[in-house]
Amino acid sequence: MTAHDHSRHHDHSQGHDHSHDHDHSHDHAPTVTADSAKRVKMAMILTAGFMLAEVIGGWISGSLALLADAGHMFSDSFSLGLALFAFYMGDKAPDKLRTFGYQRFQVLAAFVNGLTLLAISAWILVAAIQRFTQPSEVLAGPMLVIAVLGFLVNIVVFKILHGGDQENLNLRGAVLHVIGDLLGSVAAIVASIVIMLTGWMPIDPLLSMLAAALILRAAWKILRRSSHTLLEGTPEGVDIAQIRDALLGVEGVKSLHDIHVWGLTPQDPLLSVHLVIEAPELHDGVIERAYEVLQARFGIQHATLQVETRDCLTGGECNHGMVVHP
């Protein structure tokens, strides 16, 4: 199990009677067992391998539904690769150029993944529209064989991942992606059976459009979350108004300003805030109590708390955080 937990406390007293306190506890690397990493690696190899088989099968049979499912499996392979990369990068310690380590890389990679999925879904939709206007024959037999094999592979991958640590967000996300793959394989199976029984070719582009819609939905979610994090947005599930009220309720805190909450990843909230205290001698006690509140109530392990004895003593955005709209 890998985890980084560093604590630092700096107290800089200056002649104009104020101090800066940085109480940091880093726990940015995902807690991962060797078993979880092994499961993700096996799932990635199986998914990526069969993705190539679906591309070849879709090309030979002329099935757009198979190619669409291959696009979905590509997104899953990429996501599994990101999860595996995040597991391994969690072992790398921060350095002088990257003081937060390498955790933000997975967010950047997810953003690129989302853009790639948008391009894939757009290609499938355009190809499906062309198929409606210019129908082409689909070899239902080979299509059915590949689709059934894809369904079986996805069942195996689901079983591998489902047996891992479901508390790990990367692993849980991978399981959800595989469920989407299962639906894509089912769509391809249905399309091939319909073609074999009725010869109705439009079912292939029709179901491929359904798969494209699933890919588009996944792409939108990935882009929305990753871009929000890259723009230093407030992590999902974090209510700044509640944090503000909780800190104002800490004994010795008179007011606060310059409150900011962001995250290295959507799961790693960070906070900085200026706390105005009633008297200098309350300094250490306020820091300790405030940090306990942030950790226990909001799960914020990394906080930078600056303590002042007068409102806006050090300047900054003194009105920012005085009034917070939920």
What does this 3D model show about the protein?
This protein is of the alpha+beta class. Helix content is 58%, strand content 13%. It has 8 helices and 5 strands. It has helices spanning 34-61, 64-89, 104-133, 140-162, 169-198, 203-230, 240-248, 283-298; strands at 7-13, 19-25, 253-263, 269-277, 302-308. The protein has a 5-stranded mixed β-sheet with strand order 1-2-5-4-3, covered by helices on one side. Strand 1 and strand 2 form a beta hairpin. The longest helix is centred in the middle third of the chain and has 30 residues, at 104-133. Mean pLDDT is 78; it is low at 1-32 and 320-326.
Fold topology:
Elements: E1 7-13, E2 19-25, H1 34-61, H2 64-89, H3 104-133, H4 140-162, H5 169-198, H6 203-230, H7 240-248, E3 253-263, E4 269-277, H8 283-298, E5 302-308
Parallel strand pairs: 4-5
Antiparallel strand pairs: 1-2, 2-5, 3-4
Helix pairs in contact: 1-2, 1-4, 2-3, 2-5, 2-6, 3-6, 4-5, 5-6
